[in-house]
Amino acid sequence: MVSDEKLVEQSLAGSELAFSELVERYQERLLRYLLTRSGNRADAEDAVQDTFISAYRYLYSFNPRWRFSTWIYRIAIRNAARQSNKGAQAVDDYADYADDDAADPLAKCIVASDRENVWLTAKRLLNQDAYAAMWMRYVEDMSIKEVARAMDKTQSWAKVTLLRGRRSLSAELADGASAEAGRQSYGRI
Questions:
Q1: DSSP 58
Q2: Which residues of 132-151 are buried (b: 16+ CB within 10 A; e: fewer)?
Q3: Coil, strand or helix: which one is 95?
Q4: Is the four-CA dihedral 2, 8, 12, 18 of positive or negative sign?
Q5: DSSP class of residue 38?
């Protein structure tokens, strides 16, 4: 398998096939990440496309001392922030929907599912930068150094943010588990 850096070199030399391979390698990963930051699939797909257009346009600025994944995620983060600033990002809040029609079993299932999904909980609890750092570290398996570089922050910031994020999630999930255990045991005595 050819390295990302070699594919960048080949792309800069004019190989469309090499850039297509980079797109193939990162398209699904970026889409998965951007889906967590945007309101719907269409917006996320647009952001992925914008990311690759920017990457192609500025490929000459890629520094091979960094991993290509760090560079491409940095572009994706900037595109997502730009999209968010324009107000294009819509956030679905199923909990409000469930409150409006508490008798709807589908809404109840969605709320229960949301409670169980750690990434939805993280999205609700953490600010965008902390969420992005957590995603890159634990889903994309980037190193602390790569997360810091992609976020344009210091390594200390990345470490502290990840620690605080883990603590917040742990506390929230522990509270949710103890509340659920309390609801289940109530009335069974």
A1: T
A2: bbbbbbbebebebebbbbbb
A3: helix
A4: positive
A5: S
Place of tokens 């792309």: 11
The answer to whether 131 and 168 have CB atoms below 8 angstroms apart is no
Compute the distance between CA of residue 19 and CA of residue 108 in angstroms, rounded to an integer. Answer: 45
Distance, in Å, from the CA atom of 100 to the CA atom of 103, rounded to the nearest integer, reads: 9
Rg over CA atoms, the chain: 20
The tokens describing 85, both together, are 């600033």
DSSP string, 96-161: HHHHHTTT-HHHHHHHHHHHH-HHHHHHHHS-HHHHHHHHHHHTS---HHHHHHHHTS-HHHHHHH
pLDDT at 97 > cutoff 60: no
- Tell me if 80 sits within 8 A of 38, measured CB to CB: yes
- Over residues 33-92, the pLDDT tens digits come to 888 877 778 888 888 999 999 999 999 999 888 889 989 998 988 887 777 665 533 444
SS3 66: coil
Domain annotation for the chain: domains and CATH numbers: 4-85 (1.10.1740.10), 94-185 (1.10.10.10)
Distance (Å) of CA 107 to CA 77, 104, 110, 112, 120: 31, 5, 5, 9, 16
